[in-house]
């Protein structure tokens, strides 16, 4: 990039017209700060539940039709998808609520020929949650569950892709409520300048040779 004194003049003129002359000076900008209102989830209550040994059955899906039984389970872990839950009969307890948490999982297994396949399934865990963590205000509140699952033991093989497993489950249960929050809208003090300043063209009366873009300035 060529240097010319008019480059500096252009930079000062550009920043002055765009409000950048007060950049770096405390209190120099006279424009009011811009704020915008957004909805952010607020944690109302939270609980943690730990199931050291959960014995359950998991039915795997998405197995190709050409896979041959028996099958052997190699690994099992949560898939990362958001779990869902459903309530159970409370049994007259007004302080705690029994729910079933459905955790999406992904598994890796092999068939009788030694071929490796990936499958999906759901592990269900029954826990009790305090009433303060249960949504009681309709759509204004919701449960957000963060699961962590670890495979401890699994049966050797299965012919119907339904395995009996022993897993460790940890759950973090949050009761969320969206609330408005004012966020300051960031704005640069001086807007971005062009990478290359525009050349200043000057006319010289009858001759216009100096208007050649290869000669933006007079010598």
Structure characterization notes:
The protein is mainly beta. The chain is 6% helix and 47% strand. It contains 1 helix and 7 strands; from the N terminus they run αβββββββ. The protein has one helix at 5-17; strands at residues 35-59, 72-78, 84-87, 96-110, 116-130, 142-154, 162-184. The strands form 2 sheets. Strands 2, 3, 4 and 5 form a 4-stranded antiparallel β-sheet that branches. The radius of gyration is 33 Å and the shape is flat. 13% of the residues are buried.
Précis, in short:
Helices cover 6% and strands 47% of the residues. By secondary structure, it is mainly beta. The strands form two sheets. Strands 2, 3, 4 and 5 form a four-stranded antiparallel sheet that branches.
Order of helices and strands: HEEEEEEE
Uncertain segments are 1-7, 14-25
- Please estimate the helix content: under 10%
Mean pLDDT: 77
Shape: flat
- Secondary structural class: mainly beta
Largest sheet: 4 strands, antiparallel
Tally of contiguous helical segments: 1
> Could you give the distance between the termini?
17 Å
Percentage of residues in DSSP E strands: over 45%
Number of strands: 7
Radius of gyration: 33 Å
Topology at a glance:
Elements: H1 5-17, E1 35-59, E2 72-78, E3 84-87, E4 96-110, E5 116-130, E6 142-154, E7 162-184
Antiparallel strand pairs: 1-7, 2-4, 3-4, 4-5, 6-7
Pick out its properties.
7 strands, 3-stranded antiparallel beta sheet, 1 helix, 4-stranded antiparallel beta sheet, disordered N terminus, 219 residues, single chain, mainly beta, 47% strand
């Amino acid at each position: 990039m060529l240097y010319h004194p008019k480059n500096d003049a252009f930079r000062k003129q550009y920043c002055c017209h765009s409000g950048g002359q007060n950049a770096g000076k405390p209190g120099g900008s006279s424009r009011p700060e811009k704020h915008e209102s957004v909805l952010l989830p607020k944690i109302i209550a939270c609980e943690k539940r730990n199931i050291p040994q959960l014995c359950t059955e998991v039915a795997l899906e998405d197995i190709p039709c050409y896979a041959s039984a028996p099958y052997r389970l190699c690994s099992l872990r949560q898939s990362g998808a958001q779990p869902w839950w459903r309530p159970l009969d409370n049994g007259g307890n007004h302080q705690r609520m029994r729910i079933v948490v459905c955790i999406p999982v992904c598994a890796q297994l092999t068939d009788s020929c030694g071929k490796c396949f990936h499958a999906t399934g759901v592990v269900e865990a029954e826990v009790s949650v305090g009433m303060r963590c249960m949504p009681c205000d309709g759509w204004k509140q919701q449960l957000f569950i963060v699961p962590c699952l670890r495979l401890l033991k699994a049966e050797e093989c299965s012919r119907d892709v339904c395995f009996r497993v022993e897993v460790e489950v940890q759950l973090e249960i949050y009761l969320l409520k969206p609330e408005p929050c004012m966020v300051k809208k960031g704005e640069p003090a001086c807007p971005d300048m062009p990478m290359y300043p525009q050349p200043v063209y000057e006319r010289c009366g009858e001759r216009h040779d100096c208007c050649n873009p290869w000669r933006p300035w007079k010598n």
